Amino acid sequence: MNLSRIAVVALGAAGLGLAACHGSGVPSDAQLTQLLHSERATPNDPKAPLDAAAVNCLRAWSGDVELSASLPPSASGEAVKQACKTRVDGWIADTARNPDKLAFDTVAKPPAVKRAMALLAEHQPLNAMAPKLPTANEQPPSAMMPGGGQPAAPAATGPVDMTEAVNAVNELDGLCQKAKQAAATDASQPIARYASYCDKRIEQMRQRISMLQQRGDAKQAQMMTENVRRTLEVGRKLALGAEAQPTPKNN
Predict the structure, then answer these.
(1) 133, exposed or middle or buried, with CB in 10 Å at 0-12, 13-18, 19+?
(2) What is the spatial distance between Cα 176 and Cα 194, in angstroms, rounded to a whole number?
(3) C-alpha–C-alpha distance, residues 241 and 245, integer Å
(4) Which of 157, 192, 193, 247 allows an S-S link to 217, with CB 3.0 to 4.6 Å?
(5) Could you give the C-alpha distances from 179 to 61, 94, 146, 168, 182, in angstroms and in order?
(6) Is the distance from CB of 124 to CB of 116 less than 8 angstroms?
(7) How far apart are the first and last CA of the chain?
């Protein structure tokens, strides 16, 4: 009888251990950082800066009124939520970012989102309020850099609506993928020039938009929106040029 009781207790303890491993606990700081780190950060850096747009996305999907209340419409609208979830789902499926196979629902739960928000603030670099442009060797063509660079960091005046800018950056992201495909097949195409720096440029825009959403004023938001709009117009023209270009014939 005693042996039977011991066996039951042992099985119960094992079951509890498995539940702890596979349960819905809060991911560790290391797991959240590895999953949500900025695209320009060093992989596996425990202090890597987090992607602000991704954290805002989790806030929007958390179902917690307190976490989503301060988000502007451009970060909480249904279309934007679906677009950002697609982006984060791509990271969820990336074994390099998510070796422990965390589910979206797990990282979007309020406790995990609150921790991600804290890590976003803790890992923010000192110069994050004024993101640097690429170095001289990485400088993109001037046509893709309207205004000659980024405006100064915004004043802390409150959330602003940047729906148009967010949608434009999402479209630019699609053009970036087309540029990479063009560069891989025929680097002479005009749009292929965009492939070498589009990821960095888009990430800078997303960071800037996120800061403006939280702390920018209407004038700065309009300036940024116009900047993104002009960049998108140039990207569209390059894409149209690539589509119009005849397919090279094999001799």
Answers:
(1) middle
(2) 7
(3) 6
(4) 157
(5) 31, 22, 19, 16, 5
(6) no
(7) 86
- Smallest CA-to-CA distance from 220 within 171, 159, 167, 133 is with 159
60-101 confidence digits (pLDDT tens) = 899 988 888 877 766 667 888 888 899 999 999 999 999 999
Question: How far apart are the C-alpha atoms of 28 and 161, rounded to whole Å?
Answer: 33
Beta partners for residue 50, in sequence order: 37
* 3-state secondary structure (DSSP) of residue 251: coil
What would the pLDDT profile of 148-181 be if each residue is shown by its tens digit?
445 455 444 556 778 888 888 888 888 888 777 8
Rounded CA-CA distance 213/158 in Å is 8
Report the candidate in 193, 204, 102, 105 with the shortest Cα–Cα distance to residue 153: 204
Give pTM, 2 decimals. 0.50
Q: CA 16 to CA 37: how far, in whole Å? A: 32
